[in-house]
């Protein structure tokens, strides 16, 4: 998990002297963060696979520059990429 390697603010580290959060709250916060990260990562990965099928239907070449741009946009943007793609190819919602 990439976010685990990032520095943790002092207020979330229960071992620091004078931490405003109790240890159990900080631990729960870390579990919630990890759970949300993996849930969102999985959801965006599934959306990206679904979007790759749509790109194939519209003749976008696999691993082409346009393919990478759309797949990257879908992975970061999620479901809103589907609506944007429909507007770009002419299918108005």
Which keywords apply here?
93 residues, mainly alpha, 0% strand
General description of the model:
The chain has one domain. The protein has 4 helices and no strands. With about 90 residues, it is mostly helical. The model has no long low-confidence stretch (mean pLDDT about 80). It has helices at about 1-5, 25-55, 65-75, 80-90.
Element-level helix/strand string:
HHHH
Given the structure, what is the number of helices? 4
> Could you tell me the number of beta strands?
0
Average pLDDT score: 82
Secondary-structure-based class equals mainly alpha
Low-pLDDT residue intervals, each spanning 5 or more residues: none
The gyration radius over C-alpha positions equals 19 Å
Overall 3D form? elongated
Helix content: 55-70%
| N-end to C-end Cα span | 37 Å
Number of domains: 1
The amount of beta strand, in percent, is under 5%
Largest sheet: none
Structure described in brief:
The chain has helices at 2-5, 23-57, 65-77, 80-89. By secondary structure, it is mainly alpha-helical.
């Amino acid at each position: 998990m990439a976010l685990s390697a990032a520095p943790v603010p002092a207020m979330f580290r229960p071992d620091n002297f004078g931490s405003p959060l109790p240890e159990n709250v900080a631990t729960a916060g870390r579990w919630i963060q990890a759970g949300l990260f993996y849930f969102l990562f999985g959801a965006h990965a599934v959306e990206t696979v679904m979007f790759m099928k749509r790109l194939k239907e519209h003749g976008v070449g696999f691993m082409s520059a346009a393919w990478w741009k759309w797949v990257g946009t879908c992975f970061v943007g999620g479901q809103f990429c589907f609506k944007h793609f429909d507007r770009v190819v002419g299918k108005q919602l």
